[in-house]
Amino acid sequence: MATDSTTVLHVEAPATGATIQEVPVADATEVRALAERARRAQVAWAAASFEERGEVFRRARRWLAGNGERMRRTICAETGKTDDDAQLELTVAMQSFGFWAKRAKGYLAEDRFRTFSPMVLGRRVAVRYEPFGLVGVIGPWNYPLVNAFGDCVPALMAGNAVILKPSEVTPLTALLTAEMLADCGLPPGVFTVANGARETGEAVVDVSDYVMFTGSTRTGQAVMERAARTVTPVSLELGGKDAMIVCADADIERAANAAAFSALCNSGQVCISIERIYVEAAVHDRFVARVAEIVRGLRQGAADGPGSVEVGAVTHPPQLEIIRRHVEDALAKGARALTGGGPRPGAGRFFEPTVLVDVDHSMACMTEETFGPTVPIMRVADVDEAIRLANDSPYGLQGSVFTRDRRKGEAIARRMQCGAVCVNDALVNYMVFDAPMGGWKTSGVGSRHGATGIRKYCRTQTILGSGPPLRRDLHHFPYAGWRSRMMAEVVRRIYGR
């Protein structure tokens, strides 16, 4: 990892601690040069048709399918995740390429309609979407393909040029995506990668017309503050502390399997991973026993091919200390660890999959974002208590509820204060590209996916067509008392009924 004063990034393999590669850092001067080049290239790219832009991503989908092993190796090496977690990234990315290639045109089609207002009777209205020009995407380290590069796809399909500033921890995947797009016919300069740490990220914010950031709430606030200096609009997908509610009538086997997977996949380093679980007392012990049994059987280690391990490494060095602090805080305050409980000895950054019980909201593991392989489970008296505790958080990204009664599940979902809720499931809402995904509270501003996920990368322009061929409208100068009274009476009759 690099500080602002270094000229190269030393990319480290979290699973072994070895240095993989050194990558040059782009300073503020270089970022400005990239921006100038991008703006020149963007003009022709915006003039291209949606079909032409879409064809680039259809070719990219085929490229990724043909180069899947290379991409998986790159992702696994710099993140420390399992082969299966990396393959999930590839699968979701290929789906998104096809989705945006197909849907962008419809989402950004010009909207024409007749206005409701009688003041402009007879006039036609057109609303069109114009790309901002240059979009800066600042990506996270946990999903360098799906989240970092994934946010570039709708921005590019909207006709923008993009500068991607990946995490300084995981720059190699971004460089590979740049190679992919070049191979697939994207014009030079339309997409570029600016590697570096804080200084590089600040420079990207400064040169961009729109900024998309995914990462911690604290860093997101800094991005928003800097963007405010130039009144640059932003979209932020920030921290989460997603809650799962397990009702007494839930299918315990499904709930336990979903809990173990959605809390521990990618070593818990998922923005929408389950970070706290509330279980009705009647089924608490049975649920806990099954979750602990599943977690004890998980294999952890460096990826060695498909299906070799379930839980990988902790990607970002400081994250290991956050996870350790949360677990130690819980144990000191009376919680019990049924599995794991600490870092795994030996090479690499691994934290043991840890199931915590007897937890409460005095503990950091239930109130702060852990972003690691922990499963804190709390007993509650009833659903009302579970909902109250689930909503007792500054975060509001996603939630889950498990019950055999679908209507009950959807009713509970509507009471949870978060941007998305899965009933008898978790995480899978990310795969629903048709629907917006965004956070409430401090979990973010704006959303990705769906119509809003691409329209946010555009300015809107409203064009009001000419009305009846009159030389002067009733409201034009000069004013006349009789005309003003007549217009007031018309308004009273229309709106006073």
Query: What value does the Rg take, in angstroms?
Result: 26 Å
Strand order in the sheet with the most strands: 12-13-14-11-10-16-17
CATH topology (fold) name of the largest domain: Aldehyde Dehydrogenase, Chain A, domain 1
Number of domains: 2
Protein name: Aldehyde dehydrogenase
Pfam families: Aldedh
Keywords: Oxidoreductase
Domain Aldehyde dehydrogenase: 4-463
How would you portray this structure in words?
The protein has 497 residues and is an alpha/beta fold. It has 2 domains: 8-238 and 448-459, Aldehyde Dehydrogenase, Chain A, domain 1; 242-432, Aldehyde Dehydrogenase, Chain A, domain 2 (3-Layer(aba) Sandwich), CATH 3.40.309. It is 41% helix and 19% strand. The protein has helices at residues 28-47, 50-66, 68-79, 83-107, 144-149, 152-157, 172-183, 198-207, 217-229, 252-264, 281-296, 317-332, 364-367, 383-391, 406-413, 452-455, 481-495, and strands at 8-12, 19-24, 111-114, 124-131, 134-138, 161-165, 191-193, 210-214, 234-237, 242-246, 274-280, 336-339, 354-357, 374-380, 395-396, 398-402, 420-423, 440-441, 444-445, 458-464. The protein has a 7-stranded mixed sheet with strand order 12-13-14-11-10-16-17, with helices on both faces. It has a 6-stranded mixed sheet with strand order 7-6-5-8-9-19, sandwiched between helices. A 3-stranded antiparallel sheet has the order 3-4-20, with no helix packed on it. The longest helix is centred in the N-terminal third of the chain and has 25 residues, at 83-107.
